[in-house]
């Protein structure tokens, strides 16, 4: 490849890099204007907005002005063999520009040709410094800037000390004690550049991680709402259907009983509206006692004999809410699919764990084809919820019928001293 072709390729790369930088800057300005307008309309700026266009090689180009002393010596004819010095200056600047633009992309920064370009810079710097000395020694801090932009990790300290020692040695041979300033400048430029760029990368990674966490939080909230809506509407609509069928059957022979069923349908609908509003706002905390009463009512309306037993210490609101969801889902499945004549619900607790068991004597089929150890869609979601709370959920056909068993740990502070003396309550 000819020298002219290499120069042309480098100029094309520079133009492309500048075009990308301008595009990023325009996007950042547009986002900033939109954020400022939102701040004026809403009274405050959105927290954690865009940080601006990402840094690139243009940020390190102004430091090439440190080589103006060598360029001035060339123009004034103070440099021996000026053609060699001019070519060396041009090649050094080209290598510097190439390296600093590669440094802001991790893949290109770690590529072999970037390392080779940095080594070539080091050899060229040593050659120019040994040949000319004086202002040409300022290329060592520039070499440190390029090295700090490329090198990361444990090798950084070794590279910085090595370059500083090399700069001090060559500078001492050419300029005496003034070489201490060159060595110090080389070390400082290497470490400071690496620190600033590493910090900028860390900030951007943290910002990206925070955005990812926010995105996951939104997804979790959507999942929570969809599960709540599934469980709420599934149970409520099942009760409405069962009571509507009962009202239709009773309408011809017992109008008062039919009107009672219609009144229950109205109450269930109103309660469903309230629960859906609570689910939307995320403040729904179901009571286990309330869910057991509703389960008894739904089972009775469906012609299934309910048997409810509860014993053990009082439970925390969070535990009651989770067990209430299990009761709701299990009873809904029993009403819809079991064809059972009897359904037993038992809640047994001790100071360490509480256990809920719902068993019917029906056909033993779940709402949907179950996965191993887990029933339908609602039960899958409940399994994840109880697992997150340190509990477990098992559902599947029994010897006769279908059984759902849930266990949860008793949270600290739930058990009162005299709670264990409370007798078993049978309903």
N-to-C CA distance: 92 Å
CATH class of the largest domain: Alpha Beta
The fourth-level CATH homologous superfamily of the largest domain is Histidine kinase-like ATPase, C-terminal domain
* Biggest β-sheet description: 6 strands, mixed
Q: Taking strands numbered 1, 2, ... along the chain, how are they ordered across the largest sheet?
A: 4-5-3-2-1-6
Q: Overall pLDDT, averaged?
A: 77
Order of helices and strands: HHHHHHHHHHEHEEHEEE
Looking at the structure, the CATH topology of the largest domain is Heat Shock Protein 90
Radius of gyration: 38 Å
Query: Helix/strand/pairing class, anyone?
Result: alpha+beta
Q: What is the share of helical residues?
A: 55-70%
Number of domains: 2
| Strand elements, count | 6
Principal-axes geometry comes out as rod-shaped
The percentage of residues in β strands lies in: 5-15%
| Low-confidence regions | 39-49, 366-376, 413-427
CATH architecture tag of the largest domain: 2-Layer Sandwich
Query: Number of helical runs?
Result: 12
Protein name: Sensor histidine kinase
Transmembrane segments: 82-101, 113-133
InterPro entries: HATPase_C_sf, HATPase_dom, Sensor_HK_TwoCompSys, Sig_transdc_His_kin_sub3_dim/P
GO molecular function, one term: kinase activity
